[in-house]
């Protein structure tokens, strides 16, 4: 059985692929920043916040972590307009990704916070640091350093998950690939190429974040 | 298989050769779909399940519609048991190319790009696509689409025709399948929708408050049955079945049942 591969037919549409890569990276960047910040805030709420807040955030985390991403996305895009919130596909995608990442990030960051030795916190208090100062300067940096690899993995998962945003017409990478293969029917080649692009993206983003973490996020 | 080095043990080599033999046998058989169907007495036919009234899931969860009836009719004429394979607009041609199905009866329109990769029988049902919007939208021709958002199903003929005529400033939003396209339009995410007259008529019936109306024609595009490239025996046989059904009035009966009108003039 001979399969003739014609990568040229797919690569001829490189501007579409390039736009796709830009959207995938853009969606990931925005949702990673917002998602991780929200995750840290929620982790604080869940481990040190008032009881009511702990319950609310706990319910949120369970709700999001136990439903599929695509359902969350469709709920925001197709469901919310019924309640009067009409969002563009791109905004709906960013919100869905932030919501999804923040729930997982909450639990990952909380693990780091709880692993911070009690002695460090007590030392901070005995130095007359306020609870906020203690959390921001003493608890969070080593917590983030400890869970950074897990957090980076979760960001990569969300980036790969953004592939479904094409279903609601966001021109990200998988959307571009589907569009190209629906025009020239070179589906095998198209998906080989897109798999390779995702692999490179994931690898690069992972290396970049592992490099950037200690330098910019939880400086040593 | 290309890198058969001396390091490869004899046993792996034998296995690889056996695998090759199976593949070659598979390839030799591949051009004989009709024989396979006659022998196994089953035929796999791709049908839509998100495209009323051509193919949709009824209250009993079984697929029904014009294409489904047509699939059953063709299978019966071939004396084979039909195995219905639900496909989407975007994946029906890959299903045929990879031999996951023998025939595609799934509102498949004919165009030169598709003719390069699959073969077509004669037409079996009518179909036309157009741009639709609520009465309030002032759209009479393609130029009026400028600055407006239009929902369309990615990879469909609707998409190709719309892309051809739409001005550069029109915001074309391409969705994964017909359900998503229609849902997005109904949710108010786009101002207009480009789809088939039949799908639009279903929306009109179910959401009459929307005031949906026909704006302008994109393409008159009858449906053909798709056959894998080179399966000439099967194509010839299905052509005979369709020609006979067109003459006997069976096609008109199906069109009346599902589309509310006779088939009209269908091209070869």
UniProtKB/TrEMBL annotation, chain A:
Pfam families: BPD_transp_1 (PF00528). Keywords: Cell membrane, Membrane, Transmembrane, Transmembrane helix, Transport. It is a multi-pass membrane protein. The chain crosses the membrane at residues 20-45, 66-85, 147-170, 190-209. Its main location: membrane. One of its GO terms (cellular component) is ATP-binding cassette (ABC) transporter complex. The keyword Translocase does not apply. Residues 21-209 form the ABC transmembrane type-1 domain. GO terms for molecular function: transmembrane transporter activity. The keyword Cell membrane applies. Belongs to the binding-protein-dependent transport system permease family. HisMQ subfamily. This is Amino acid ABC transporter permease. It comes from Bradyrhizobium uaiense.
């Amino acid at each position: 059985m001979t399969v003739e591969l014609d990568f040229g037919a797919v690569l001829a549409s490189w501007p579409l692929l390039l736009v796709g890569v830009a959207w995938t990276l853009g969606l990931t960047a925005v949702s990673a920043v917002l998602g991780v910040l929200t995750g840290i805030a929620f982790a604080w709420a869940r481990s040190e916040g008032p009881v009511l807040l702990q319950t609310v955030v706990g319910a949120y985390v369970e709700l999001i972590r136990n439903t599929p991403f695509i359902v969350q996305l469709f709920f925001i895009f197709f469901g919310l307009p019924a309640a009067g919130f009409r969002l563009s596909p791109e905004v709906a995608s960013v919100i869905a990704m932030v919501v999804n990442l923040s729930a997982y990030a909450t639990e990952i960051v909380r693990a780091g916070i709880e692993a911070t030795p009690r002695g460090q916190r007590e030392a901070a208090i005995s130095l007359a640091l306020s609870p906020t100062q203690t959390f921001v300067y003493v608890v969070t940096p080593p917590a983030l350093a400890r869970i950074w690899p897990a957090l980076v993995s979760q960001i990569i998962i969300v980036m790969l998950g953004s592939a479904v945003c094409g279903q609601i017409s966001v021109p990200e990478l998988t959307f571009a690939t589907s569009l190209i293969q629906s025009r020239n029917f070179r589906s095998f080649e198209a998906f080989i190429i897109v798999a390779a692009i995702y692999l490179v993206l994931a690898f690069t983003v992972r290396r970049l974040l592992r490099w950037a973490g200690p330098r910019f996020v939880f400086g040593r | 298989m290309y890198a058969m080095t001396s390091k490869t043990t004899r046993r792996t080599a034998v296995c690889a050769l056996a695998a090759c033999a199976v593949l070659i046998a598979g390839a030799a058989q591949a051009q004989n779909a009709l024989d396979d169907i006659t022998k196994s007495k089953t035929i796999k036919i791709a049908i839509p399940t998100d495209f009323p009234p051509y193919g949709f899931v009824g209250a009993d969860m079984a697929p029904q519609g014009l294409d489904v009836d047509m699939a059953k009719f063709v299978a019966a004429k071939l004396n084979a048991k039909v195995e219905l394979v639900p496909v989407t607009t975007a994946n029906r041609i890959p299903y045929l190319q990879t031999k996951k199905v023998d025939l595609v009866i799934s509102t498949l329109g004919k165009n030169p790009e598709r003719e390069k990769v699959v073969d077509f029988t004669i037409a079996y049902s009518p179909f036309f696509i157009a741009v639709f919007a609520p009465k309030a939208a002032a759209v009479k021709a393609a130029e009026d689409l400028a600055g407006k958002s239009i929902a369309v199903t990615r990879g469909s003929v609707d998409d190709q025709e719309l892309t051809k005529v739409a001005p550069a400033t029109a915001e074309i939003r391409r969705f994964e399948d017909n359900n998503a396209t229609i849902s997005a339009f109904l949710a108010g995410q786009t101002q207009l929708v480009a789809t088939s007259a039949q799908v639009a008529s279903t929306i009109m019936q179910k959401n009459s408050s929307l005031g949906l109306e026909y704006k302008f024609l994109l393409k008159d595009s009858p449906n053909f049955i798709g056959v894998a490239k080179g399966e000439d025996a099967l194509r010839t046989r299905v052509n005979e079945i369709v020609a006979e059904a067109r003459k006997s009035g069976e096609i008109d009966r199906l069109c009346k049942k599902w589309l509310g009108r006779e088939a009209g003039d269908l091209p070869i």
